[in-house]
Structure formats: C-alpha cells, structure tokens
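W.,

You were right to be curious about this one. When I first looked at the sequence I had no strong expectations either way, so I just let the prediction run and decided to look at it fresh. Below is the sequence, 59 residues in total, followed by the output.
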Amino acid sequence: MLNYDFVKAYLASKVRSERAASLVEYALLVALIAVVCIVAVTTLGENAASKFDSVSDAL
C-alpha cells in the first residue's frame, strides 16, 4: 500500500507541475500576441493618420 501511495503522490505532483508550466506558456503566448497587436495598431494608426492628413491638405 505504501508503494502505491508514493506512486500516486509522485504522479499527482507531476501533473500539477506540468499544468502550471502549460499555464505559464499560454500566458507568455497571450502576452506576445498582445504586444504584436499593439505594435500593428500603432503602426497602422500612424499610417492612417498620415493618409488622412494628406487628404485633408489636398482638400
């Protein structure tokens, strides 16, 4: 009985640590996607603003 409890506790600890590692990896992916989105919106916003300025000056 003691051996089974040890194996059960060992496997349970491995599952928890892998789940936590997966959670950290997903959090890093979400953060990276957010940074890419912010950079893209900033760049597109600046380009759109310059286009609107050029159209406004043309009028």
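Here's what jumped out at me. The first helix runs from residue 2 to 58. And, maybe more interesting for your project: The helical segments are 2-58.

Coffee later to discuss?

I.
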